[in-house]
Amino acid sequence: MIRGPLYGLALVLLVAATALASWTINPRGPVARTEIYHGVFYTCETLPETDEMGGLMHVIEVDLTAPGVELFVTPPDPQVVKNHAPWTYRLRYVWQTAYRENLAAATNATFFDCRISEPGRPRIYVPGDLANTVQTIITDDRTIHASKDERLLWFEEDLTPHLNTFDEIDQDKTWGDVRFGIGSARLPIGFPLVRDGKPRYWPRGHGITDAVAPRTAIGIDTAGRRMWLITIDRGIPNALIQPLIDLGATDAIILDGGKSSTMVLGRDAGRVRPGTVTGGKRPVATVIGVRARPLDR
After folding, report:
1. pLDDT value at position 283?
2. In sequence order, which residues have a C-beta less than 8 Å from that of residue 154 and are 6 or more positions away?
3. pTM listed for this prediction
């Protein structure tokens, strides 16, 4: 029988392991649309099993007009920028960022490059490893990796969302209005999934467009000032389109997918279990999420 200090240590380790498991291994089932923070709603639905999709679809809906709602996009790590240029980020699990930044909900964000691309490095994604986004990120008045080959999903100071090409933003001279932004992937996978409320089905035959894998996407409604973060367990990119339109998204782009696809609910989430609801297998460079006021207990 364990007694004394060893018993206390064992108990602490057990509690810590249980808490960690609740954030990283937290299997889910269908959940009707439920407000989990003020202005933040969670839904989980079962997808039809086809050759193009299957498993569960997890949705975070955000009322961008709700008091207390704040957008979060991972900013560059200042210590990495200072000491390890040209790298700008360190890999972190989505749950780590959600916990540290006190987010109500979060998903993985941009595609990224990291040191596994260096010759001789094992292809193992390690938390804390150096990384770069390969899509545009705008946050805290900083722009990282801007590319005119992308479309920019961006937010004004009051969180009104938009989707534009870089040329459109140049012509309208609206760069000064951009508070946060995430670029779409480059072509052939950089087409928006939804544009002006209409489906933009991706051409098949490009590898990624045919692969059935976990997927993450972000959708917006400019007029209604709503945002949706959506993950599916399995699907081709086109499988995301109709669900986004059904939710009300007028514009949408795909985010990183595969083992990067992750969704986390904040530790103060009401009416549902907090923690990782899907994915969580791979640390990532960037996260998009929201802060919001917890519900009254």
Report:
1. 98
2. 138, 161, 162, 163, 164, 169, 178, 179, 180, 181, 182
3. 0.89
